Amino acid sequence: MNDTFWLLTAIIFLPTAGAAGVALIKKESVETMRAFALAITFATFLLSIYLTWGVFDPTDPGIQPKAPELVSKDAGGFKSAEIAKQYEQRGVSTKWIPGWNIEYRLGYDGISVPLVLLTGLISFLGMVASWSIQKEVKGYLILYLLLETGMMGVFLALDFFLFYVFWEVMLLPMYFLIGIWGGPRREYAAIKFFLYTLFGSILMLIALLMLYFGSGGGDTLPTFNILKLSAIGQGLIPDLAYSPAVQLTAFVLLFIGFAIKVPVWPFHTWLPDAHVEAPTPISMILAGVLLKMGGYGILRIAFPICPAGAQAACLVLVALGVISIIYGAFAALAQTDFKRMVAYSSVSHMGYVLLGIAVWKLTDTGSVDGSRFWLQGINGAMFQMIGHGISSAGMFFMVGVIYDRVHHRDLNKFGGLIGLMPLYGGIAIGLFFAGLGLPGLCGFIGEVFVVLSSWNYSPVLAIVAASGVILTAGYILWAVQRVYLGPEYKGPHPEAITPLTEREAFVGLTLLAFAIILGVFPDTLFSKMKTSTEQFVSTMDAGYQASLKPATTTAAVEKK
Amino acid sequence: MVCDMNFSELLQRVVQDTVGTNPFGDLGRVWQGQQPTLSDGSLLMFLPELIVVGTILALLFVRLFDLDKVFSGQSVALLGSTVALLVAVVQFLALKNFDGAASDAVHKTMFTGLLVYDAFGVFFKVFLLLFLQLVVYLTRLTGLPDREDAPDFYTLLFGSTLGMLLMISSNNLLMVFLGIEMTSVPSYAMVGFLKGRRTSSEAAFKYVVYGAGAAGVMLYGISLLAGLLGTTNFPEMAVRLNMVIGTHPLKMDATLLTLLLSIVMILVGFAFKLSIFPFHFWGPDAFEGASTEVAGFLSVASKGAAFALLLRVLLALVGPTTEQSGLMVPVYFYLGIAISVLAAVTATFGNLAAYSQNNIKRMLAYSTIAHAGYMLMAVGAMLVLLNATKHVPDAQVRWDLATRAVEGLLFYLWVYMLMNLGAFAVAAFIRNELFSEDITDFGGLWTQAPVLTFAMACCMFSLIGMPPFGGFTGKFMVFSSLFQAGHYHWAMWGVLAIAGLNTVFSLFYYVRVLKFMFIAPAKDDARRVKVPLTSAAGSYVFALAVLVLWTGMWGAKYLSATAHDVASVLFP
């Protein structure tokens, strides 16, 4: 237990402590509660900033911290001390349930740090946007803070069991947040969201059992340590390996679990309902952070632990990614509900993430064909995750702002808003252009990297994916035209249209600022994750090669 | 051997076995946290049960001598259950160092071999007595028996618990039947305790008819088995079984048929107690008719005791080493699979039938059936793992695996006690306020009594099996045993898949309760519920909810370690 241990623990559990604090405040003092909760989310955001720029070392590709106190212990079992250092002995940990070798193990690298930062930012901005919540504020704030704990925990956990626990913990508050504070069909949306995710979780649980019991043999106790599981999956530990069949089964189970969260077509149908019915700040979190968990899970767990399974499934993954892009874009074009359109745009945009991760093409000899292209794809996917986190949260917020005023979302009953609310119109158009992928804004970099890298995998799919950009431009420009441009506002409650409040302007401008910074200086983000993604690509390649060898020589150690 | 003795010698032996050579000198040993020595008589080991008996007597005398104006039945019951629990805890702590060489000395028999005294039994004693105390406290808060009825009610409650205490320590087929009947008869009366109500009497009547039928079948099975083996004593059963069957090639002759019939009949008795499909029909009716507190008691205590006894009977049949059971090994292996499949059917049935229920007790009754299914899966997995001699020749490895399965079951039972009692307690408090047990009447409770709804949410999520609540950890352990057993027969993986799907099914009806509590508005004519956290009822359910959370987080470490130690004494 060192400073980093407590820093990571604080990032995860400060919101929980905040929730307990809110519970102690009297129900009547609503403003005090709001201010307190805001302070907590801001403090958590500051901690995540400190983690990113103060603690995190972008030159180290592996999981951090290196935990020097662990290096001396238990170096055996690995093929070399070098590999051991790369894997098992990183992160900070303490025992949780020793009888089952379950640990409270935390750590971060270039892949998780940007997402932690994004979570801190979106949670903070979502809390600012939560002033629009009037009903049962106390319960709302408690659940909101618990939700943040779950999200942070997912991105920082390095023990699969712990990861699973955080993954589920985030479900519980979300059910209530949608179910109590949501729109007219909130009950349906909440249970649908819960059900889909739980179904995926159960599949993940079965994969968890497979991988756990496969990770021990003879005198070695099985482990949930994601790093060690990855090492086994990549054939780095003698006498332990997952056979290709086990890897493929586990990968499919894991992938479905994560794909539901991303969401990937055809597991996406919970998303439009949940996003549309959720209150605005929760929509921001759903689109901004929750969807990224699926992508993160694929990058952190499904691919590294099951390289052979991932490789076998790549073509399907790429196809699903492309279908999501096109399907989501067409579905968005067809919507008349403003928020639903934004929701479907998320399906489309997250398709790029999956596409970028999956463009892992092998040559006939088995080595990666153009590993630079795959690296580009991974980088693009990561960038797209962050960029979409900013732009989609912004778009949902912009929809929420106008909905709070006129209480409808029918795209055909807006118009001329830029004249009535110039600041709002400006920010909104900026954020929508970021979602569109206009060069100079955050959406562009991710999409272009992914599409470029997919050309190496399959030119046909690349062309199809690229055409998604045109469709995106279509629905976004059409929406902008119908909502913000035009001569006059055509819908109900024209008298309620008032300029942005300072609070709303703060949220919108902050998101727009991040969209511009990421678009103009993408290297602020790339520099943080470059080494980690490079190592990801090279170890996955080596791991795939190695995972094939023991399986062909010795029988797979899948049993006890 | 007995024939050589004269009567007075025999009597002498029995007395010595009962009270020990130095009963008064050794009485303090247990209190000092030491293990009873061989000179200790059975009475010392039987102390918690004796205290329960004493409480029953006290309850009766209080009524007889008109003392119930001074000591209410509730306080006598609370005192008795507390003292019995403390003694059991001391006994457990005295046995706690049951590792290594000490473990053999710990398997002691009481009353000339009719009962056994080991860490497993004492663990369940603590379980049952703690639960008894929680239920007594709950009835005190809800005021289920009024002052007039209290001695009657607690006499029945304690009598039933006494039967369970005998069940969990059984070392003889006779005690199995005696314990089960002693548990059942007071339960029938408790179900019908709400005398004025037609549904209550109907429920009690159904329960009696079913229970008597099942007991008859079980007794018949016991008599067949005893006749076949020539013994009712557990430690001898496996050896005798081997003598009867082990040398024959496994073919369907009369002996094997009788044996299988007797095993199936005994299992029918258990299936009734555990409300396993297709012997579950009494459950929902009995629970709906009984008061919420009684339903809560039956759903947990009788299940816990029946699972402990089921393990004892099965392990007596399998024997300490599978080498002894010889040709019976494949029979037990497939029996394990059959039990698991039955468990999967039970869980599925319970979960599907719970959907359409609007009465909270009826819904919880079906949920009880489903959970009995999950727990029975662990028993099936244990049998499979224990008898997978073909795949795992090393007996030690099989015992380790089986220990894990039993650990999962024990963990599950403890969490189940807390979460189910929590759910029933909340339902009872709501009934006291709203005079309704319909889930649809729970609208808007969240804003009126947040502590009740918070506790209910914890219990429901735990029953679904969501982390970070204890229900998840228990389920995880049971699932992992199923997964391990799947390595030896694919059917167990099928059971695992069904169990996983069941978790998803069960989401609907558990969350439906929460939906009404949290999302639906209150009915216009509904009473306002006021149960603040600071009230006794509020703090009671809050404490249970926190415990459910604790077992899933920090507590998992201790509970799983204890359960593992306790489970390991069952295997050599």
SSE blueprint:
The complex is a heterodimer of chains A (560) and B (572).
Chain A: H1 3-24, H2 30-55, H3 68-71, H4 81-86, E1 92-97, E2 102-106, H5 112-129, H6 137-156, H7 160-169, H8 171-181, H9 186-214, H10 226-233, H11 244-261, H12 270-277, H13 280-305, H14 307-334, H15 338-358, H16 371-406, H17 417-420, H18 422-436, H19 442-457, H20 459-483, H21 502-520, H22 523-553
Chain B: H1 7-19, H2 23-31, H3 42-45, H4 47-64, H5 73-95, H6 102-106, E1 108-110, E2 115-117, H7 119-142, H8 150-169, H9 173-191, H10 198-229, H11 234-246, H12 254-274, H13 282-289, H14 292-318, H15 322-325, H16 328-354, H17 360-386, H18 395-434, H19 445-448, H20 450-464, H21 470-486, H22 490-519, H23 536-552, H24 554-568
Brief summary of the model shown:
The complex is a heterodimer of chains A (560) and B (572). Chain A has 560 residues and is mostly helical. Chain A has 22 helices and 2 strands.
Give an overview of the whole structure.
The complex is a heterodimer of chains A (560) and B (572). Chain A is an all-alpha fold and 560 residues long. Chain A has a domain at 310-521. Chain A contains 22 helices and 2 strands. In chain A, strand 1 and strand 2 form a beta hairpin. Chain A is globular. The model of chain A is unreliable at 69-79 and 551-560 (pLDDT under 50). Chain B is mainly alpha-helical and 572 residues long. Chain B has a domain at 1-191. Chain B has helices at 7-19, 23-31, 42-45, 47-64, 73-95, 102-106, 119-142, 150-169, 173-191, 198-229, 234-246, 254-274, 282-289, 292-318, 322-325, 328-354, 360-386, 395-434, 445-448, 450-464, 470-486, 490-519, 536-552, 554-568; strands spanning 108-110, 115-117. In chain B, strands 1-2 form a two-stranded antiparallel ribbon. In chain B, helix 8 packs parallel to helix 14 and helix 18 (395-434) runs antiparallel to helix 21. The longest helix of chain B is centred in the last third of the chain and has 40 residues, at 395-434.
